[in-house]
Amino acid sequence: MKTFRIGGVHPAENKFSAGKKIQQAEIPKMVAIPLAHYIGNPSEAIVKKGDLVKVGQMIGQANGFVSANVHASVSGKVNKIDVQLDASGYKRPAVFIDVDGDEWLDTIDRSTVVKRECNLTKEEIIKKVQDAGIVGLGGATFPAHVKLSPPPGKKAEVLIINAVECEPYLTCDHQLMLEHGEEILVGVSILMKALEVEKAIIGIENNKPDAISHLKQLATAFKSITIEPLKVQYPQGGEKQLIDAVIRRQVPSGRIPVEVGAVVFNVGTTYAVYEAVQKNKPMFERVMTITGKDAPNPSNYRVRLGTYLSHVVEQAGGVPEGTGKIIGGGPMMGRSLMNLNIPMAKGSAGVLYMRDEEAVRRPVQNCIRCSKCVSVCPMGLEPYLLMAQSERNMWPEMETDRVMDCIECGSCSYTCPSNRPLLDYIRYGKATVGGIIRNRNAK
Amino acid sequence: MEKLIISPAPHIHGGDSVSKNMTGVIIALVPALLASLYFFGLGALIVTVTAIVACVLFEYLIQRFLIKGEKTILDGSAALTGLLLAFNLPSNLPVWMILIGALVAIGVAKMSFGGLGNNPFNPALVGRVFLLISFPVEMTTWPVVEPFSMSYLDAATGATVLSLLNEGSSAIPSAKDMFLGNMPGSLGEVSAVALLIGLVYMLIRKIITWHIPVSIFVTVIVFSGILYLVDPATYISPLVHLLTGGLMLGAIFMATDYVTSPMNPKGMWIYGVGIGVLTVVIRTWGAYPEGVSFAILIMNGFTPLINFYVKPKRFGEKVK
Predict the structure, then answer these.
(1) In degrees, to the nearest 5, what angle opens at C-alpha B280 toward C-alphas B277 and B284?
(2) Does domain A285-359 have CATH number 3.30.460.10?
(3) What does the angle CA B115 – CA B118 – CA B123 come to, to the nearest 5 degrees?
(4) Among A411, B6, B165, B192, which one is most buried in terms of CB atoms within 10 A?
């Protein structure tokens, strides 16, 4: 069975919410829809206090090409446009809406019938994806229409769908495949058309055998879509790792996937593309997992953007006793949250409760030079060295030792027997070196 | 819930620890320890216990009164150094010499550099070589094998296979005896089979990788094999090289010491080949019949250089 060829770890999977049907989360009384919750420029609010909005109506306009539109996830009255603490830990602009009913735009097709035919041209598809404000749902939240428009001279050969869900605990993509497999495959063929590729491969880790067999069966009715079961290994959901695992090509340092002929889309994003193109439904809700070892009811919810996490958490039975840390996302790359008064954003894949004893880091010891961090690094870097350089502000050396290649997967810190905060220091070094490089290029 | 912990990702840890690795190595040394207790009896027990207690005690005292740092004796590394030091000593070595060896190993080779992780040379080997140079007679007078012997300082002694060969004798034990360990030598080095069991255990537990032991074995076999093919009358056969002296112990347990060995497979190969070549050179042309300790210490010295120049295989280095 295929997997990526350098490094990797295998944390306990703990997929407690696997097989739990996606429930529709209750619509809250008030939402705060972030205007900047993806990579790229924040969008600009095009509504003002007192405006009445419907579900699906655009409220934030993309600002430049690498930016995405934002749509109302509820119907009601705009209360204010103000800053709001979000999952990143920063206060950023958001549109606050007081909910009144649940009135959708007439243009959105709310039927559950799967619409397979798509007669749109490449340009029309990209336009629809762009209008719908679709960003990658795998974590990086990169605007999807940018990926569909490769730089001049670059041509994609194969579309790879990231259905790996390698983060422990999270199950939203898994459940989406089980419940909306056909829609996802239609989404894949739409993306193939937009990219003008002849081939699509869906990479799924083999800890989801039901999703693999379900999609394999459905895929027989689709041309040129294959399902590739992958050996479970973290961080297989990393874009470069997935490409290596599936088509045995390694994207060189500092390059983008299309340079080896691949374009990668997350499976959740693919579903959103289906909804946008076939059902005219902009991206205003997504599936998220509420989970944890002590979670009263590990579950998968479809949640409207801007819903406060506290509102969803309550529906899932509340925060368990003895929770020391709450993570937005998975345990390997998610962010720890200050509180639950944070609005759900396009990149929010889950809420994870960690017990007190798990939440505390163990004491740091000397590096014993066991080289385990080197052997698990999926980018072939030397985390122990990068940390030592970062501690000593050795920025040019860090650049030579390729700190910018780091994908921040956390495999080094996860593995270190001395509990050294390798990634903390590497991240700091990467940010500093990145700034130095930008300054140099600006000159 | 009132006070949530905020920290950067990753939020989980694999559960590996320094003490798990150290105790793993100690467990891997148990078969060889049992073999030495069988072959050398009471002497092996006294030397082993003395070395372990002395190493732990010296680390504790230095930590407590000189460095005044955090207590590290519980991580198991001091006990491991003691055990490995004992394995490199003859089973009739007087206690006071063992204490000197332990003090040099822990005090000079380890703690003076800042403790575990900072020492450039393998502490147990530094202790052994210090003793070898200081007390050449006592360090090369080996008790002969006597199962469950009750003698310690008064044990009957004999020469090791390598020193016999070095002196031109050809009365060496059978391959089976050498494999099992039925021959004079340092107390932990004699039983190849017990040491190999330890290697398999460490590989399964993923405490070490195969690169260093295998590169040393391959180099020794190839290099000594060429010499042997050229002139079997002058040179020692590869099999004898492999099964005698400290080669097994050195390749499996001393050269693989985390702190003093290179950090990636390519570097490990360079290091292993270096140790293999130096071992055969010292054994064949050097003044000492045995060269593994020196070979490892010399290559320890090259480790930082290897780490500086030899980088792991980067992702995307070669397209396709």
Answers:
(1) 140
(2) no
(3) 70
(4) A411
With 0-12 / 13-18 / 19 or more C-beta atoms within 10 angstroms meaning exposed / middle / buried, residue B3 is: exposed
To the question of domain A27-99 being in CATH 3.60.110.10, the answer is: no
Give the predicted TM-score (pTM) of the model: 0.92
Give the Cα separation of A197 and A116 in Å (integer): 18
Could you please state the CATH topology (level 3) that the domain comprising B20-308 is classified under.
Answer: Ammonium transporter fold (1.10.3430)
CB contact under 8 Å between B7 and A336, yes or no, is yes
Structure confidence at residue A204 (pLDDT): 97
CA distance B40 to B32: 12
Instruction: Compute the distance between CA of residue B39 and CA of residue B45 in angstroms, rounded to an integer.
Output: 11
Rounded Cα distance, B141 and A296, in Å? 69
The reported pLDDT for the residue numbered A86 is 86
Give the chain A residue whose CA is nearest to the CA of B256.
A370
What is the per-residue pLDDT across A391-428, written as a single tens digit (0 to 9) for each? 999 999 999 999 999 999 999 999 999 999 999 999 99
**What is the pLDDT confidence band of residue B170, given thresholds at 50, 70 and 90?**
low
CB nearest A413 (choices: B10, B315, B320): B10
Q: How confident is the model at residue A120 (pLDDT cuts 50, 70, 90)?
A: very high
How far is the alpha carbon of B164 from chain A, nearest alpha carbon, in Å? 38
Residues 6+ apart with CB under 8 A from B83: B26, B29, B33, B48, B51, B52, B188
- Using CA atoms, how far apart are residues A267 and A275, in angstroms rounded to an integer? 13
CA-closest candidate to residue A307, choices A16, A45, A24, A18: A24
The CATH fold of domain A122-279: Rossmann fold (3.40.50)
Which pLDDT does position B59 carry in this prediction? Answer: 95
Q: Which of A100-109, A226-235, B230-239 has the lowest mean pLDDT?
A: B230-239
Nearest to B5 among A89, A325, A375 (CB): A325
User: Cβ A374–B314 below 8 Å, yes or no?
Assistant: no
Give the span between the Cα atoms of A277 and A187, in whole angstroms: 8
Average confidence (pLDDT) over B237-245 = 90
Is residue A136 within 8 A of residue A238, CB to CB? The reply is no
Per-residue confidence (pLDDT) for residue A393, from 0 to 100:
97
